[in-house]
Amino acid sequence: MSDLYLKFVNTPVGKTAAQTLGLPAPVPLKRWKRADQPFIEGDVLVGAAGNGKAIAALGSLLGASAASLHHASGVATLEASSGAGNKARPLDLTTEINTRFSALVFDASGMKDTAELRALYDFYHPTIRKLAGNGRILVIGLDPAGCKSPAQAAAQRALEGFVRSVGKEIGKKGSTANLLWIAPGAEKHLDSSVRFFLSPRSAYVSGQVARIGKVTGELAATNPVAPLTGKVALVTGASRGIGESIAETLARDGATVIGLDIPAALEDLQRVTDRIKGKALACDITDARAPAMIAEFVKEHFGGIDLIIHNAGITRDKTLGNMPEHFWDMAIAVNLTAEELIDEELMKQELIRDNGRIVCVSSISGIAGNFGQTNYSTAKCGVIGYVEALARKLKNGITINAVAPGFIETQMTAAMPVTIREAGRRMNSLSQGGQPVDVAEAIAWYCNPGSTGVNGNVVRVCGQSLIGK
Ligand code: NAD
Predict the structure, then answer these.
(1) Cα→Cα distances 337→54, 331, 333, 374, 410, Å
(2) Cβ atoms 232, 351 nearer than 8 A
(3) What pLDDT is stored for residue 201 in this prediction?
(4) What's the rounded Cα separation, in Å, for the pair 244 and 141?
(5) CATH homologous superfamily of 232-461
(6) Which of 223, 276, 303, 387 is most buried (most C-beta within 10 Å)?
(7) Per-residue model confidence as pLDDT tens digits over 168-183
(8) What is the pTM of this model?
(9) Which NCBIfam families match (predicted)?
(10) pLDDT at residue 469 above 70?
């Protein structure tokens, strides 16, 4: 779907017109292009407060990347580990900074009380104007749930407010700000998440907090170019829109994909699965026989499943007083109940392999509510409750997470009345709609074998929409 306004304001005439009239001037977002692309390029500045433990892990990851690494002297104590490709160069923040940074990364996990929050200001105040367009701010903190004292929990929770506000300030340049809350000991398991949040894969994710838990044992080494090699994925609603992009993205990352959609969409579905050398399964997920049919298909063709992506969804909008009962029933059945029943059957038959991933597609409507969508919001909020509860029960490295898309350019949003569509597109920090691939990339991050510590999260892919928290 095409955003003509975005194209127009990026022409010389459009730029001047937007400036003169005080209209939003979104910049085109850089997205992932090549499989062998380094996850970040350019200069990265890393800082830390207190004796944060994440900085060493960051140092070795970033030092080995294509980026040129700096650390802020006075604020940071960076230990670029031995074996890193790039040795960090110190940078004095009190003098003129002549570098443009692709990312400003701060390890705040060592902060013990609110007095230490000053270190955030000291690090970001002199550098934020030096953040390049499409840049990244990433803060690493300690999950407040695991903090020992109220003072430490206050400082760590405060990071969320910081990231959410700074995201709103830098969004006009296409830049994003996010926070990773780690559990004690989880600093060793940051790799896949740092790679995602610093790369163009997270182009439409801003103002978000992801929790990373501790993992027992070592994570298997992954191939950064095709991390899902050998994995089998089920993607529901794969014939078009976001589902099509999820299927393509997981296949790009090495997975073999079973694309599922309603029988009426079989022709389109087959076009998608043929292109990515996957398999097509025509099935209505609300059919009482669907869970058994899916389990049978998985067993017969692959013997088990690694990645289950519950993407199929519908809207049936009407204000509550005008809503016929079948609108309510269908929205709950497709968007919520079918997912539970499919997982239940796959778990009962022990078809989900160790280190498996379940990903649900919720919506910002499920977080903030939306006029005319009581049925849809109820279902999509139920998805969040389901994810949070099941995350606590899963074993053997299996995780469940959700993405909550905002305004994504698909047939669903193209069908909206023009005024609502334009409002949806512009009312976010990046002043534009997301692409289906933005949702798919977040799902691929959850699916990464290195993301075992990422469990029970709901990350919004919404350009930091002004709707909801
Ligand atoms: P879409 O309508 O383009 O695609 C949905 C797909 O699901 C279709 O291929 C459809 O045939 C399939 N489907 C519907 N009912 C099914 C059933 N009973 N059994 C099997 N397949 C079924 O929608 P989209 O925009 O690509 O949305 C994908 C997901 O993202 C949905 O869950 C939607 O609620 C969610 N979402 C989308 C947006 C957005 O802006 N587009 C925003 C928030 C959330």
Answers:
(1) 39, 9, 5, 16, 24
(2) no
(3) 97
(4) 35
(5) NAD(P)-binding Rossmann-like Domain (3.40.50.720)
(6) 387
(7) 999 999 999 999 999 9
(8) 0.94
(9) PRK08261.1
(10) no
Rounded CA-CA distance 344/25 in Å is 47
- Atom index in ligand 1 nearest the CA of residue 268 equals 9
DSSP 8-state symbol, 108: -
Q: Provide the residue type at 30 as one letter.
A: K
Which residues make beta-bridge pairs with 357?
A: 307, 399
Out of 1, 3, 261, mutate this one to test ligand 1's pocket (max ligand atoms within 8 Å of CB): namely: 261
Is 386 designated active site? no
**Angstrom distances, CA of residue 430 to CA of 169, 179, 433:** 10, 18, 8
Q: How far is the CA of 312 from the centre of ligand 1 (A)?
A: 4
Residue 273 CB neighbours (<10 A): 24
CA atoms within 13 A on the CB side of 227: 22
Q: How many CA atoms lie within 13 A of 375 on its CB side?
A: 25
Query: Residue ranges per domain, the chain?
Result: 24-212, 232-461
What pairs with residue 223 in β-bridges?
none
Residue 33: CB atoms within 10 A of its CB come to 7
- How does strand 176-182 pair with strand 131-142? parallel
Each residue's pLDDT tens digit, 135-165:
999 999 999 999 999 999 999 999 999 999 9
Between the CA of 264 and the centroid of ligand 1 the distance, in Å, is 14
- Separation of CA 343 and ligand 1 centre (Å): 18
- Which position among 124, 376, 386, 446 bears the catalytic label? 376
The CATH architecture that domain 24-212 belongs to is 3-Layer(aba) Sandwich (3.40)
Tokens of 228: 């899902």
236, 242, 287, 459: residue to mutate for ligand 1 pocket, most atoms within 8 A of CB: 242
Least confident of 96-105, 134-143, 445-454: 96-105
Lining ligand 1 with CB less than 6 A are: 236-237, 239-243, 261-262, 265, 284-286, 311-314, 334, 361, 363, 405, 407-408, 410-413
Ramachandran angles phi, psi of 279, nearest 5°: -125, 145
Cα separations (Å) of 445 from 212, 228, 307, 376, 402? 13, 10, 12, 26, 11
Do strands 352-361 and 305-310 pair parallel, antiparallel, or not at all (unpaired)? parallel
Q: Does the fold of domain 232-461 match that of domain 24-212?
A: yes
Q: Which atom of ligand 1 is nearest to the CA of 264?
A: 11
CA–CA gap between residue 15 and residue 13 (Å, rounded): 6
Q: How many residues would you count in the chain? A: 469
Spacing, Cα 261 to ligand 1 middle (Å): 10
CA–centroid distance, 210 to ligand 1, in Å, is 24
Distance CA 391, CA 103 (A): 31
